[in-house]
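Q: For a teaching session next week I want to show students how multiple molecules come together into a single three-dimensional assembly. I've collected the sequence lines for a complex. Could you give me the predicted C-alpha cells for the whole thing so I can convert them for display?
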Amino acid sequence: MATEDLSLLKAEAMTQSTLAAVDHLPVMPLLICFVFGSVLLMLRRRVDLHPVLAIPGLALLLATDIAILWQVWTNGTMTLMLGGWLPPFGIAFTIDMMGALFLTAAGFVALACGIYAAASVDPVERRFGFYPFLFMMIGGVSGAFITGDIFNLYVWFEVMLIGSFGLIVLGSRHEQLDGATKYCFLNLVGTTFFLIATGYLYGLFGTLNMADIARKAAAMEDTGPLLTLVSLYFVSFAMKAAAFPLNSWLPASYHTPRFVTSALFAGLLTKVGIYAAIRVMLMIFPPERAELSVVIAWVAALTMLIGGLGALAQSDFRRLLNYMVIAGIGTILVGLALPQLPAGTDTGPIAIGMSGAIYYAIHSIIVMTALYLAAGVAAHLTGSSSLHEMGGLWRHNPLFAGLVLVLFFAVSGLPPFSGFWPKLFLVRATMSADMPWLAAMVLFSGFLLTIASARVFALGFWRSLPAAVDAPNDDERARIVGERFSAAGPEKAASLIPLLMLTAFVVIAGVWPEWLLQMTASATAGVLDPSGYIDSVFGGRP
Amino acid sequence: MELALTFATAVLYSIAFYLLMSKHIIRMLLGVVILSNAVNLSIFINGRLTTIAPPLIPSDLSVPVDPISNPLPQALVLTAIVIAFSFFAFLLVLSYRAYQDLNTDDTDEMRVAEPKEEGLPPLGY
Amino acid sequence: MNSLILRFAAPYLTALMALFSVFVLLRGHNEPGGGFIGGLIASSAFAIYGIASGVAPVRRAMVFHPVSIAGAGLFLAVISGLGGIAVGEEFLYGVWWFPTFMGTELHLSSILFFDIGVYLVVVGTITSIALGLEEKGRN
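A: Of course. Below is the structure for the complete assembly, covering every listed component.
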C-alpha cells in the first residue's frame, strides 16, 4: 500500500486546517461534565469531597458556557468536527446563538442546583451518586444543545435520560418509585419515536448532519414524506416537552424526588424538548412546520390552559409548580405556531414570536428552577409543602418571601420581571399574525397563573402559621412555630445563595431586557435563515 | 426482501404498541423490548438492503475492493441496541423494585404519587 | 442457586470468560469484537459467579466497587479523546503509536484506550445491575 495513496484519501475525508485553542471550545462543556462526573464516581467513598469538587466543576462549566456564548456572539456560529472527519461523515458539534443561549442557561441553573444540593442532599444519597448523575444529566443536556448531528442529538437525549433516571430514583421512597416508573416508560417511548423518525430521515436523505439535511431539504422536490416525518418529530418532542395531550407524565413524577432534583428537571429537561423542536422543525423543515402551525397552535393553547387550570386545582406547592412548568411549555410553543412570511422577509410575526419564545424558554429555565428550590426552602422551614399546612413565611423570613414574590411575578408574566417581555412579544406576534384567540389564551393562562401564585403566597407566606400546628394552647403553639423557624441554621446560606443568583437574573432580565432581546433576536435570525449554520459546518465547500 | 422485512417490522410495531397499551408493567416492559427491536429493524431497512458483503476492509488495502453493504445503519443500530439494552436493564430493576414496594404492577393502582382523594386546595384562611 | 456442579465449575468458568473477554476486547481493533461485547462477556462471567456462590464473594473478588470501575472507564474514555487535542487535531482524533516490544511491532492508539474505557464502563454498570438483581432475588 502506497503511503501517498493514504494521504490522498486522508485529504478527502479529514480536516486539514490547524486549530487554535478557541476552536476546541465546543467540546469543553462535555469534557468538564464527564471528567468531573467520572472522578466523583471513582470517589464514591469520599462523599465529603463531592460538593467540594462538584461546585468548582460546575462553576468551570458555567465559565466555559459563557466563553462559548461570548465567542458565538462576537464571531458567529462555531463548528468542531469530532475526530477530524469532514462533514457530513463525521459528527459535527455546531453551536449557534440559540444553542449557546440555552447552554449558558443550563450551566447557570446547574451551578445553582449544585450549590443548593450541598446543603440539602444527605451523604447517603451523595454516595449513591447524586453529583455524578447531576454531571451526567448536565452533560446530556449540554450535548443536546451543542451537537449538529441528529443521531447524536438522540444519543445525548438518552445520556440525559440515564442521568435523570438515576436522579429521580435516588432515595427510592414509595412515591418516587411510582413517579419514576411513569416518567421512565413515557420518556423512553418518546425518545424511541425520535429514533424512528431519525431512521426514516436517514432513509430519505442519506445523511444525519443537520446542516446537510437543512440544505438538502430546501432543495428537495418531492416533499410529501417530510410532513409525516415532521409530525413524528413533533410527537416525540411534544412528549419530551410535556405538551398537551402528552403531558401526564410530568405531574405524575416531578414532585416525587428531592426538591433540587425536581428543580433541575423542571428547568432543563422539558426545555431540551423545546430546543430540539425549534431546531428540527423550524430550522431544518420550515415549510412543513408552517403546514403544521395550526396543530401546533392548538397544542400550545390547550397546554397553556391545562397548565393554568391544573395549577389552580392543586393543594401542594410542588404539584402546583408541575402545572406551571406545563403552562410555560405552552407559552413557548406559541412561538413555534406562528405562520411564516415568504423567504427574504425577516420581520414577520415568526421572527418576533420566536425571539419571544426563546426569551421565554431561557426565563422559564431559570424561574422554574428557582421556584422549585424555593419550594424546597419553604418546605424545610414550615415542615410541609401542602398549602393546608404552610404559613408564616413572610413574618419569619421576609427576605426569602420577597424573593419568592419576585419569582411569582415573573412566572405569571407580570412586569417588571423577566416573564413580562417575552409574553409581550408573543402577544404582539400572534396579533400581527391574525390569531387573536391565541393571544387571548396567552393572557388568560397568565391570569390563571397569577391566581395560583397569589393563592400560594396568601396561604403559605402571608397567613400566620395557623391552626395547622397541633398544640394545646397559644403559648405552646408559638413555641413550636418559633422552633421550626430557628432550625434553619447552616443550611440557610447554601440554600439562599442559589435563590439569590437566580432571582438576580430574573430582575436583571426584567428591568434591562435589551441585551437578552438582542441575543434572542440574533438567535431567531440564525434559526430562520440557516445559511450561517450551514456555512459554519461546510465552510463554503459543496 | 425489503417487503418481507417491512412486513416483519409492521408486525413488531403492532405487537409493541399493543403491549405498551397494557396496564401491567411487565407487559409494558416486553413492549419496550419489542419496540426497540422494531425500530432497529426499520433503521436497518432504511439504510437500503444492498449487497450482503460485510463492510470490512482487508488489512493490506485502504479501500474495499468489492461493493460492501452500508456500514452506517449498522453503526446506528449498534448504538441503538446498546442504549436500548442499558435502558431495559434499568427499567427491569426499577419495575421490580416498584413491584416489591408498591405490591402491584397495575398502573391504575399505582397512585402513591397522585393520591385519589385529595380534596380541594384551601379556599381561604 | 444451590448446585454443587455449578458451584464447583463457576470459578473456572468465570476465569475463562474473563480471559476471553479481554481477547475479544483486543481483537476488536481490526476484527469483529471490541469493548462493548467484551464488557458484556466479562459481566456475564461475574453474574455467573454471583449466581453460583452469592453476591458477597463476587464483590470481594472484584476488589473495587462496580460503579467505581465504570467511573474509571468513563474517565479513561474521555481522556483518550484528549490525545487528538495534544497533537493539535480535533477531540477524539485517532493518535497512533508503533513501539517495538520484544521484537514485535505493537499497534497502539488512542482508540484502543477508548475501547478499554468502554469495556470498563460496561463491566461496571452491567455487573452492578446484575448483582443488584441477584441480591434482591435472595430475600
